[in-house]
């Protein structure tokens, strides 16, 4: 693979006019360990060096439109190319290979950011930029010797950073970061569907009892999850018939990705079984019936079984989750960034 030369692309912020028209090349160092501070240039949006009248036109255009058009120039990598670049990154700390890996997967970040847009009332570029940070981390952490496709591996990092950004800014989007709100974020729609299949009306009162949160929290989260702010059928610009959904590459999961997913699920299954061995009898029972069950018992049901209050059951449950987070951080260091999803 040829090294990038004086014609290499520059990483700039599309919201910064000076960055857009600045044609000076800058070398970028790649943090091999991924533990230090991330340089701003690692995750801002890419743009080509612009000449003549094109400078003025690009600066005046919508930043999102410019960005989508720009990243579409970078071709996707083959599996062999991913492995070759991954080896250079891990073994030689090669910043050029890292640059190629990042730019070739920027469309994946946009696709995932669009999936989360319904939860974010602000600029979509906020989510894209956070997702790009996750992508950079994925490039740093990717092990080319494991049978896992990079796009599949990177999607976990991208989603984690976007979701963490949304959760950290809950005062703006009103999702929240309490235990109950996180539970609703991940399980509300699934619980509603389960009740419908069982022949029940999934109203706030029943959902509140089943999930152990207040009816008000149910109503607020339900409204938030149902409120899409960006339609994938919306044209990229007013004079274009091209829709955002057409721009995003949405491949059906390949056999390789299915194998990779199965490998990850197997690893998690083993770790969960190991974690169970660290629990006391009552904790294990609550873990199986409340946390790790497809049809979890309510706080009331478990409380009656052990002759304790609902609040006490909630305390035990929270303690188990805290233990589980620490266990996974110790046993699976690469997944420490995902503790907000547990």
UniProtKB/TrEMBL annotation:
<protein>
    <recommendedName>
        <fullName>RNA polymerase sigma factor</fullName>
    </recommendedName>
</protein>
<comment type="function">
    <text>Sigma factors are initiation factors that promote the attachment of RNA polymerase to specific initiation sites and are then released.</text>
</comment>
<dbReference type="InterPro" id="IPR000943">
    <property type="entry name" value="RNA_pol_sigma70"/>
</dbReference>
<feature type="region of interest" description="Disordered">
    <location>
        <begin position="1"/>
        <end position="35"/>
    </location>
</feature>
<keyword id="KW-0238">DNA-binding</keyword>
<dbReference type="GO" id="GO:0003677">
    <property type="term" value="F:DNA binding"/>
</dbReference>
<dbReference type="InterPro" id="IPR050813">
    <property type="entry name" value="Sigma-70_Factor"/>
</dbReference>
<dbReference type="InterPro" id="IPR007627">
    <property type="entry name" value="RNA_pol_sigma70_r2"/>
</dbReference>
<dbReference type="GO" id="GO:0006352">
    <property type="term" value="P:DNA-templated transcription initiation"/>
</dbReference>
<keyword id="KW-0731">Sigma factor</keyword>
<dbReference type="Pfam" id="PF04542">
    <property type="entry name" value="Sigma70_r2"/>
</dbReference>
<dbReference type="InterPro" id="IPR007630">
    <property type="entry name" value="RNA_pol_sigma70_r4"/>
</dbReference>
<dbReference type="InterPro" id="IPR013324">
    <property type="entry name" value="RNA_pol_sigma_r3/r4-like"/>
</dbReference>
<keyword id="KW-0805">Transcription regulation</keyword>
<dbReference type="InterPro" id="IPR013325">
    <property type="entry name" value="RNA_pol_sigma_r2"/>
</dbReference>
<dbReference type="Pfam" id="PF00140">
    <property type="entry name" value="Sigma70_r1_2"/>
</dbReference>
<feature type="domain" description="RNA polymerase sigma-70">
    <location>
        <begin position="298"/>
        <end position="324"/>
    </location>
</feature>
<comment type="similarity">
    <text>Belongs to the sigma-70 factor family.</text>
</comment>
<dbReference type="GO" id="GO:0016987">
    <property type="term" value="F:sigma factor activity"/>
</dbReference>
<dbReference type="InterPro" id="IPR009042">
    <property type="entry name" value="RNA_pol_sigma70_r1_2"/>
</dbReference>
<feature type="compositionally biased region" description="Acidic residues">
    <location>
        <begin position="14"/>
        <end position="24"/>
    </location>
</feature>
<dbReference type="Pfam" id="PF04545">
    <property type="entry name" value="Sigma70_r4"/>
</dbReference>
<dbReference type="InterPro" id="IPR014284">
    <property type="entry name" value="RNA_pol_sigma-70_dom"/>
</dbReference>
<keyword id="KW-0804">Transcription</keyword>
<feature type="domain" description="RNA polymerase sigma-70">
    <location>
        <begin position="126"/>
        <end position="139"/>
    </location>
</feature>
